[in-house]
Write a structure and sequence with these properties.
Helices cover about 45% and strands about 10% of the residues. The protein is built from 20 helices and 14 strands. The protein has helices at about 20-35, 55-60, 75-80, 105-120, 150, 155-175, 175-190, 200-205, 220-230, 245-255, 260-285, 300-305, 340-350, 365-370, 380-400, 420-435, 460-465, 480-490, 510-520, 540-565; strands spanning about 5-10, 40-45, 65-70, 90-95, 125-130, 305-310, 315-320, 325, 330-335, 355-360, 405, 445-450, 470, 495. The strands form four sheets. The protein has a five-stranded parallel β-sheet. The longest helix has 25 residues, at about 540-565. About 40% of the residues are buried. Bound molecules: glutamine and zinc ion (ZN). Zinc ion (ZN) binds near residues 239, 409, 451, 473 and 534.
Length: about 575
């Protein structure tokens, strides 16, 4: 106010969640106070990501000048709010997608805007992106490596601002050439042969009940797996990646720049795999991994190998506040035309007598961490990715890999904001995991991994995944998260992380031992695994070696104690 602002926007995405009575009351009090204290300021409340739902009456009753609605994710709420919007309140219509990278469908947006103008008059209607543009890359203009056909379907932040301007011009000046051009881009995408793959569509249609479940029950599988893969009590393993050193990153860079032939690159990666296998063997780990040295990122790596994905050169977006990622763009029917991981896993397995765990990113995580198609439901795109991952699982099995891990760190993150929408998501997300994993023989052990996650309210779905082993992040919570599994009497095997990989600190044997004892008190000991919280790619070698050696020692001590007690 002191600096002369007329308008102030307050972001309130909390308004699209389930609110308790006292929370609603807090809104009324807070905004009442604000508006009384700053009568000159026009406040705009921005809601986004989902519908205001049953908070619509609350939101529109607040003493503010304008209310912003996400009409990309929840267009129907316009019908609900128009009859009750107070006199003089301005509506800001979020018609441009702030979270995805597709060109706007002008006809659809204009229809919504005109509906609002008819009721409120043009002075009381604003046109905006659905949410902040933080979630999309900055500028499409610099993407000179993208297929021009695909590029013509996209809009990044800068282009989205221009779209707002164009929509305004179409409405104001009836500049139909802009509309015609937009329609043509839309048509080109709908009809493009790049998007549609008949074989993929047939395969998806052919998925049936048989594909949703393993051949036998977990108890049956566990017996067969124990007969085939001999492991001690409290088997030790890791989550997949080993330190991504500068040397490893340099290899990838050199390959990209053409300074290394793919043969040289392959040999260097194999050398890294060989040495990490020997190291694990010697350290006494029971289930080994190949180290994931060939992967830039757990989603990008798979996207680059699958059909239906495109990549940007500069399409960085912020993730988790401090990190940046370059999500792939899923534009078409996803399919797998070649092996993605088999070569590396097979090579690793050839270097040891111990089992090597194959390592894949799961369909839900690939979906969550990509820009996805907006021309079909999320669940359908998930099923396409699922079938591609299933094929890779089967190829690994065929190549002699007996243990396969399908990582789903983003499983919980995919939940809708409102509880009433959860079940629908959980149903298809669980189905995706089951279809991806259920094709293998009983003797093949399927693992999954999830990062920091609350399990209490989704434990039934976690159990429904029916993974033979799940590894989770539990060390920072001192095994508290295991409570959900214990209360549920979770039947399958579980590896609660015994040390925090986000810190360089080397945990002592005693610390890990006491965590493992806690876990043993909660769950049947014959179902427990010993592993770190997550992958080790951000760690240095020195601390990794020491930590894992201590972890193996802790497992040995516990084994001795338990056998003694039995
Ligand atoms: N397998 C992956 C790794 O070890 C899992 C990473 C994750 O859960 N985010 O890096
Ligand atoms: Zn993790």
């Amino acid at each position: 106010e002191k600096n002369g602002a007329d308008w102030i926007q307050l972001d309130e995405p909390f308004l699209v969640t389930d609110l308790a009575y006292r929370q609603k009351e807090a809104y009324i009090n807070a905004y009442g106070k604000l508006s009384r204290q700053f009568p000159q300021i026009k406040f705009l409340i921005a809601s986004y990501f989902e519908s205001l739902g049953n908070n619509i009456a609350l939101a529109s009753s607040l003493p503010v000048s304008a209310l912003h609605l996400d009409l990309v994710n929840a267009p129907q709420q316009l019908n609900e709010i128009l009859p009750i919007v107070p006199k003089e309140m301005v509506l800001s219509l979020g018609v441009i997608n702030g979270r995805n990278i597709w060109k706007n469908d002008y006809s659809r947006s204009i229809k919504l805007i005109k509906q609002a103008i008819n009721k409120l008059g043009r002075e009381r209607v604003m046109i905006a992106p659905s949410s902040s543009l933080l979630h999309v890359p900055v500028d499409l203009d610099y993407e000179d490596k993208l297929d021009p056909e695909i590029k013509n379907w996209l809009a990044f932040s800068k282009q989205k601002l221009n779209e707002i301007n164009e929509i305004y011009r179409i409405i104001e000046n009836k500049d139909d050439s802009l509309l015609t051009k937009n329609k043509a881009a839309k048509k080109s995408r709908e009809l493009s042969s790049l998007i549609h793959n008949e074989i993929v569509k047939q395969n998806t249609a052919a998925v049936s009940k048989n594909d949703f479940a393993r051949k036998s029950s977990f108890a049956e599988r566990q017996k067969k797996q124990r007969a085939k893969i001999s492991l001690p009590l409290f088997p030790t393993t890791t989550i997949g990646s080993f330190p991504q050193t500068d040397d490893i990153r340099r290899l990838r860079n050199k390959l990209k720049k053409g300074e290394l032939t793919s043969e040289q690159y392959e040999n260097d990666i194999k050398a890294a795999i060989e040495s990490v296998i020997y190291w694990q063997d010697e350290a006494g780990l029971d289930v080994l991994v190949h180290g994931e040295f060939e992967r830039n990122d757990m989603v990008e790596y798979f996207g680059e190998m699958l059909e239906g994905f495109a990549f940007t050169s500069n399409g960085w977006v912020q993730s988790y506040g401090s990190r940046c990622v370059k999500p792939p763009v899923i534009y078409g029917d996803v399919s797998r035309s070649k092996d993605m991981t088999v070569k590396w896993s097979k090579f690793a397995q050839s270097k040891t007598q111990k089992p090597v765990k194959g390592m894949l990113t799961g369909p839900v995580t690939i979906l969550q961490w990509s820009f996805i198609r907006d021309d079909q439901p999320r669940s359908e795109t998930a099923m396409l990715i699922t079938l591609a991952i299933r094929d890779e699982v089967l190829a690994l099995e065929k190549a002699g890999i007996q243990i396969i891990q399908i990582d789903e760190p983003a499983f919980r993150e995919g939940l809708p904001l409102r509880k009433q929408d959860w079940q629908e998501y959980l149903d298809w997300a669980v189905k995706a995991f089951r279809v991806a994993s259920a094709g293998v023989q009983d003797e093949t052990q399927i693992h999954t991994h999830m990062c920091y996650s609350e399990f209490n309210d989704i434990i039934k779905s976690i159990a429904d995944l029916d993974a033979d082993v799940i590894t989770i992040e539990t060390s920072r919570s001192q095994m508290e998260l295991l409570g959900a599994f214990a209360n549920f009497k979770y039947p399958n095997e579980i590896g609660p992380g015994v040390y925090d990989i986000h810190s360089p600190r080397v945990p002592t044997v005693d610390e890990m031992l006491s965590l493992l004892k806690k876990a043993s008190a909660l769950l049947p000991v014959q179902n427990l695994w010993v592993n770190p919280d997550c992958g080790l790619k951000t760690r240095k070698w020195l601390e990794t070696e020491e930590s894992l050696k201590n972890m193996v020692k802790a497992a040995l001590i516990l084994r001795r104690m338990t056998n003694f007690n039995v």
